[in-house]
Amino acid sequence: MATATATASKAAAQRGRARAEVNQLQTFIWVGTDKRGSKIKGEYAAKNVSMVKAELRRQGINPTTVKTKPKPLFGAAGKPIKPREIAVFSRQISVMMSAGVPLVQGFDIIASGQTNPRMKNMLTSVKTDIEGGSTLYEALGKFPVQFDQLYCNLVKAGESAGVLDTVLDTVASYKENIESLKGKIKKAMFYPAMVFAVALLVSAILLIFVVPQFEAVFENFGAELPAFTQMIVSASRFLTAYWYIVLGATVAAVFALIFIYKRSPKFAAFMARAVLKLPVVGQILHQSAIARFARTLGVTFRAGVPLVEALDSVAGATGSPVYNEAVKRIRDDVSVGHQLQLAMRQVNLFPNMVVQMVAIGEESGALDKMLFKIADFYEEEVNNAVDALSSLLEPFIMVIIGTLVGGMVIGMYLPIFKLAAVVG
Questions:
Q1: How far apart are CA 342 and CA 337, in angstroms?
Q2: How far apart are CA 132 and CA 29, in angstroms?
Q3: Burial of 27 (0-12, 13-18, 19+ CB in 10 A)
Q4: What are 69-110's pLDDT values in tens digits?
Q5: From CA 130, how far away is CA 138, in angstroms rounded?
Q6: What family does the database annotate (predicted)?
Q7: Residues pairing with 29 in the sheet
Q8: How deeply is 209 buried, as exposed, middle or buried, from its count of CB atoms within 10 A (0-12, 13-18, 19+)?
Q9: pTM value?
Q10: Interval 224-260: pLDDT, tens
Q11: 62-68 and 26-33: which strand pairing?
């Protein structure tokens, strides 16, 4: 027992020293000549210049210049690591392991090709932990933001079963599908949001810069302005005088909503339910949540993760607080012995077709295949719905823009029409 404890302590100390050494490394830029006299250059991470020169000479390169790589003035720390970068990394490490490249060497190759310093440092840290004796699951677990519980559980299952390369290929496909689905949802939301933002901006410009010019002309008429025109003029005066208050209140309201949404689960659930009830958009979000639920559960179940533990990971992957709570209820029901299809029926969120396919999968012992079929179907539905949404929104957006901008233009010309009628 004492021997095992001492061995574990020694391994932990070695990992600590390895991480400390990585943190002390600097990146050097070098220029040299190879055996044929050709000029070559590159980068190398080491503790000092002497180590770089020694390594280059060992490789048959005669170094002529070795200097510390200068840090960029802006963005020295690098951009935040995006989910799509994790998806690309997952595919790269999957391909390398399938080709027989050792895990440590694969991380080294992928890290050397990164342009984002944060991503490079993270992969280097993971590689160092693996060299120090940690499992891939343990090394990735130190970065919970980039590698969530679901990702780590899948890797752990793959390592335990000795099929890490196969699981990594599954994880890579899963991440690519999820990111593709997220992209479609963002596309559906981004277009109308941008159009409405532009319409509001154009309206604000008209009220602040254009309407005051018409107001100066109206004052010379000496006649009473129509009610609609007077309303636009009053809005213009208020916005011109207190634009900073309006802008500040708008920004404050947006930040307050975001803050409350992140800090209050009840408010987040309320907003999620409200959005799910919207026509067209709500249907897309429903289909997206079902697709993510089915694909995530299918991937975890196929990897050998127990169903209750898989549902615990799936809850946070649906992308909706409403479905998050529903999956937790399903998990609780399954943990006490209920069938998955019965637990899904009780939450009253999943269409009858989904429940029936899950029931068939449970009875036939092919639950993962059924879940993948459900995911494929609903991902295709989301894709079609996003395309249809763009076509449906175009005339609706034109009506909104026409009402906002056209209404102001008509309001400005009403007094002129009235004056022309009087003169006529």
A1: 10
A2: 28
A3: middle
A4: 776 544 445 578 888 888 888 888 888 888 888 888 888 888
A5: 9
A6: Belongs to the GSP F family.
A7: 43, 67
A8: exposed
A9: 0.63
A10: 777 888 888 888 888 888 888 888 888 899 898 888 8
A11: antiparallel
- Please give the backbone phi and psi of residue 63, each rounded to the nearest 5 degrees, phi first: -75, 135
Tokens 């233009």 belong to residue: 409
Residues in CB range of 279: below 8 A, 6 or more apart = none
Measured between alpha carbons, how far is 253 from 263 in angstroms, rounded to an integer? 15
SS (HEC) of the chain:
CHHHHHHHHHHHHHHHHHHHHHHHCEEEEEEEECCCCCEEEEEEEECCHHHHHHHHHHCCCEEEEEEECCCCCCCCCCCCCCHHHHHHHHHHHHHHHHCCCCHHHHHHHHHHCCCCHHHHHHHHHHHHHHHCCCCHHHHHCCCCCCCCHHHHHHHHHHHHHCCHHHHHHHHHHHHHHHHHHHHHHHHHHHHHHHHHHHHHHHHHHHHHHHHHHHHHHHHCCCCCCCHHHHHHHHHHHHHHHHHHHHHHHHHHHHHHHHHHHHHCHHHHHHHHHHHHCCCCHHHHHHHHHHHHHHHHHHHHHHCCCCHHHHHHHHHHHCCCHHHHHHHHHHHHHHHCCCCHHHHHHHHCCCCHHHHHHHHHHHHHCCHHHHHHHHHHHHHHHHHHHHHHHHHHHHHHHHHHHHHHHHHHHHHHHHHHHHHHHHHC
What the block records as the tokens of 422 is 């009087």
One-letter identity of residue 157 = A
Distance CA 69, CA 400 (A): 54
**Position 133, amino acid:** G
Give the integer Cα–Cα distance in Å for 378 and 383. Answer: 8
Q: Is the pLDDT of residue 23 over 50?
A: no
Candidates 109, 110, 162, 105; CA nearest to 130 is 105
